[in-house]
Amino acid sequence: MALIANSLPVASLAEPGHFLLVNDRIAAPGEFILHHVLAASLKDSTAECVLVSFLERLDHWKAIQSKLGVTLETYATRKSFVFVDAFSQITMPPSSPRSQDPLVVPPIDPEASVPLRPLFDTIVGALRSVDPELPKLLLFDEVSLLEWLVPSQAEVTRFWRALFALKQKMGFGLVVLQSLDASHNHMIEFLLSSCTMHLEISPLASGRSSAVTGEIAMQRGPLSVSDGPSYKAVRKQALQYRLTESGAVWIERGTGGGML
């Protein structure tokens, strides 16, 4: 997969069978990583993408992807992209009006005896609906909301265990965004122990400036493959970044220069 920056090969870390965990903070949101990975994967035709969103609706993703040169409707027509509105699926009663947007998977019944099983089945169906000729990439935005929508930690843990087993079986790449400020310690530790690569996005200790938005630390996860080519990019020093209208500008610490 293409790199989103010479200094941070994030897209190459979302390869089939890998699990990239992105932890962010309220003061330093990490959604831009998902946008860059999604855009790079669709543009380069390296993966068929399923996006499961708990936080933002499809219109938000359409608008940001458009700035990155990606028209999601086009890829949906090619069966290269599927959007799953997970928040509505869990919270919307079956009798509520359905979205007319063909990209949105219809909501599930929140009164089901096992709340997350229908969502899991929907994700399986979405993965099977995309073009089978290319590898698959499954992306989740702010999954800390899942912990608040489903109070049972045991149920949430079972959901992730089932998803990891599905990843092992189907071989898709997995990218998950999780807030360190909104998630329970148990779930933070659980996902961290299951990833192959870990990105942590933090605000600057000195506060946000006009030149730098925050910094990213990249480390191998517990399940990383030491001889994997993409894992040689692990950095010993955090990389700073600045967000712009067109994406992220990457800045080596201690320099004033940036790279697109």
Automatic annotation (TrEMBL):
Pathway: tRNA modification; 5-methoxycarbonylmethyl-2-thiouridine-tRNA biosynthesis. It comes from the Eukaryota. One of its GO terms (biological process) is tRNA wobble uridine modification. Gene3D superfamilies: P-loop containing nucleotide triphosphate hydrolases. Transmembrane segments: none annotated. Coiled coil: none annotated. InterPro entries: ELP6, P-loop_NTPase. Pfam families: ELP6. One of its GO terms (cellular component) is elongator holoenzyme complex. Belongs to the ELP6 family. This is Elongator complex protein 6.
